[in-house]
Amino acid sequence: MKKLYILALALVASASSFAQLRTSSDSVSYAAGMSVTNGLIPFLVQQQQMDTTYMADFVRGFREAVKGVDPARKAYLTGMSIAQQLNERMLPGVTQEFKDSPDSIIPQQFYEGFAAALLKDATYFTTEKAEQYFMAKREADKAAREEKLYGANRTAGRQFLEENAKKEGVITLPSGLQYKVLVKGDGQVPLSSDRVQVNYEGRLIDGTIFDASKNHGDKPAEFTPTQVIKGWTEALTMMPVGSKWQLYIPYELAYGDRDTGKIKPFSTLIFDIELVGISEK
Questions:
Q1: What is the pLDDT of residues 72-130, one digit of tens each?
Q2: 77-86 long-range Cβ contacts below 8 angstroms, 24+ apart
């Protein structure tokens, strides 16, 4: 019985460690190996989403890899690594692009298409045709999604500008920008490279105020006309200092299809802007 017990201990010891530390170099090497694992487990859990219950399997894979991996096995392991990156980075991004659109990304078909390209399987597409089809569908679905989510916003803006153009004192420029002179200034007209000082308040066509210079301090905002939206650039390089205008800016000259929080894509904007002065260079 005692012999069996001793044998069992020997088997446990041999299973837990393959190392025998006979020299100083053995010991320092062993200690170095242990030291470089500092921070590894949190990395495996947080970045690799590994379940540490299977640490023995991880170590078995580690031992196999450090011995040297044959080309077939290396390719297999690389495929597993790429699959992880695909699942964590690429697939979520592509899936998000098609959210709220007529189409959606089905993971299994995505994986099959990925594999088919690498195996040069042209049953359904060549890689070139697949890229062309995907790009066209992505653009079409983006347009459909935008129409579904923000089409009413775009239509409301266009109708507003059409009616606004008929009002007394409103001037419509070839670009589509509309403005009305509230106070006529007689100062210098800025160049696009000048730094201007401006008081402003911005509203949506329903009257919602989304920004104002007074929210950012007691002094006027200061910038060059080229640092702001196109509608502002055009207006500021026409206004004499001392002027106060009301601008009616179509979305093409504002933030376009961008979502900036309070300003939704395709929003027509209204600004009261006062050109206070031009800063000395």
A1: 888 988 898 899 889 989 999 999 999 999 999 999 999 999 999 999 999 999 999 99
A2: 84/48, 86/111, 86/114
pLDDT class for 3, splitting at 50, 70, 90?
very low
- DSSP result, 45-72: HHTS---GGGHHHHHHHHHHHHT---HH
**What does the DSSP 8-state code read for residue 280?**
-
Phi-psi region for residue 241, left (φ > 0), alpha (ψ -120 to 50) or beta? beta
Q: Please name the residues in contact with 254: beta carbons below 8 A apart, sequence gap of 6 or more.
A: 229, 230, 231, 263, 267, 268, 269
Query: Tens digit of pLDDT for each residue in 247-257?
Result: 999 999 999 99
d(CA 120, CA 123): 9
Residue pair 261/275 in contact by the 8 Å Cβ criterion: no
Note the pLDDT tens digit of each residue in 131-175: 999 999 999 999 999 999 999 999 999 999 999 999 999 999 999
> Do residues 220 and 276 lie in contact, with contact meaning Cβ atoms separated by under 8 Å?
yes
Question: From the CA atom positions of the chain, what is the Rg in Å?
Answer: 33
Q: Go through 112-140 and write b for each residue having 16 or more CB atoms within 10 A of its CB, e for each that does not.
A: eeeebeeeeeeeebeeeeeeeeeeeeeee
Tokens of 197: 């000082």
Element (H, E) at 202: strand 196-204
Token pair of 38, please?
A: 């500092």
Neighbour tally for 204: CB within 10 Å = 18
Cα–Cα dist 125/132, whole Å:
10
